[in-house]
Design goal:
- By secondary structure, the chain is an alpha+beta fold.
- The chain has four domains: 66 residues; 109 residues, Nucleic acid-binding proteins (OB fold (Dihydrolipoamide Acetyltransferase, E2P), Beta Barrel), CATH 2.40.50; 52 residues, no CATH class; 103 residues, no CATH class.
- Strands 1, 2, 3, 4, 5, 6, 7 and 8 form an eight-stranded mixed beta sheet that branches.
- The longest helix is centred in the first third of the chain and has 23 residues.
- The protein is globular.
- The mean pLDDT is 83.
Length: 342
């Protein structure tokens, strides 16, 4: 129960941090005072527990402000000059007719007439053609003009959503130069190509969505059919996929290697995280990987396993790594659904 409480306090701190800005000295003082109280009155459970909760709360506030800094990319918006940006595609593209929307996490930028690169933070929503196609994990260099969200996105709700996800700029039909792909996403692309060549459509694109989490290749007509029938969630990588894989590998490894040594636990652990990374580390898959890892750790240590503390701790870890995930709909629905099942 205490682990659940501390996890909820941490998530609450992350949420408060998104609305309240504390100077560094105020954050340190807010953490130090409860710590002193907890140390001086550690024999009184109420003081100890209250001080610990306050420490976790203000640590969550400080974590948000440390992790989520103001994007520096927006200072180049609406300058009517071409810039060159190096970055990594943060997620698989979204297709709409003949247009593709890319989410690029910017790393470096320079004005085209200059030679010096400078570090930058923020995400760019890029509108480009469907072909050539780029995927999550691709490193790109794009050249074009940056525009602010207020100028290019007319829908206020969509603009607010993009802001919460860390986007600060848009770029329309820039010049794109492919740099490289990480080995894991390169493996993912090769597997997707193998499925595409082995199966006819729409089975090929469906298998890529169900096995690898690549939904961008599904034809628009089939995607609309899933949406209209209310079954679009079936083509998303979920905790169920992770549980089936983890359970199969765990049982098989235990049968092959036996339970005397922790080899079967290590194999299951490595498999579940490799698959989570391979599918793009979507919130449901990330949550399931953390929970199963906690289950394996408890099994290894001989401690009792409980689903609700694991779920709460998984939420705390995820928002600690990426606070913006707290506003992700798939994150919210995943945790609400699992909480209802528990």
């Amino acid at each position: 129960m205490r682990l659940i409480s501390l996890s909820l306090v941490w998530v609450t701190g992350i949420y408060i941090g998104s609305h309240v800005s504390l100077p560094l000295y105020a954050s340190i003082t807010a953490i130090a005072l409860p710590l002193i109280v907890a140390l001086l009155w550690h024999k009184r459970q109420a003081f100890l527990w209250g001080g610990l909760c306050l420490i976790v709360l203000f640590s969550g506030i400080g974590c948000y402000q440390w992790k989520v800094s103001e994007p520096t990319l927006q200072s180049f918006n609406d300058q009517e000059i071409e810039v060159e940006i190096k970055g990594v595609v943060a997620r698989d593209p979204e297709f709409e007719g003949t247009t593709s929307r890319l989410s690029l996490s910017a790393k470096e930028i320079r004005i085209k007439v200059e030679e010096e690169w400078q570090r930058v933070s923020g995400k760019v929503l890029i509108y480009t053609r469907v072909f050539p196609s780029y995927g999550q994990g691709d490193s790109l260099q794009v050249t074009g003009e940056l525009h602010s969200l207020s100028q290019s996105i007319k829908n206020p709700d969509y603009r607010a959503y993009l802001t919460e996800q860390g986007f600060s700029s848009t770029m329309s039909y820039p010049e794109i130069e492919f740099i490289q792909t990480g080995w894991l996403f390169s493996l993912r692309n090769r597997l997707a190509e193998s499925l595409d060549s082995a199966l006819h459509e729409p089975q090929g694109s469906l298998s890529q969505a169900l096995l690898l989490g690549i939904r961008s290749h599904i034809p628009d007509s089939l995607r609309d059919d899933f949406r209209s029938s209310g079954t679009a969630h079936l083509i998303a990588i979920s905790g169920l996929h992770m549980v089936i894989l983890a359970g199969t590998v765990f049982s098989s490894a235990a049968w092959v290697f036996g339970r005397q040594r922790p080899t079967y636990i290590l194999i299951a652990f490595a498999t579940i995280w490799t698959y989570a990374l391979l599918t793009g580390m979507q919130p449901p898959a990330f949550r399931a990987a953390i929970m199963f890892s906690l289950f394996l750790t408890a099994l290894w240590l001989g401690r009792p396993q409980s689903a609700l503390p694991s779920l709460a701790l998984a939420a705390a870890i995820m928002v600690g790594i990426d606070p913006s995930v707290l506003w992700d709909v798939s994150f919210q629905l995943s945790f609400v659904a699992v909480t209802g099942l528990i």
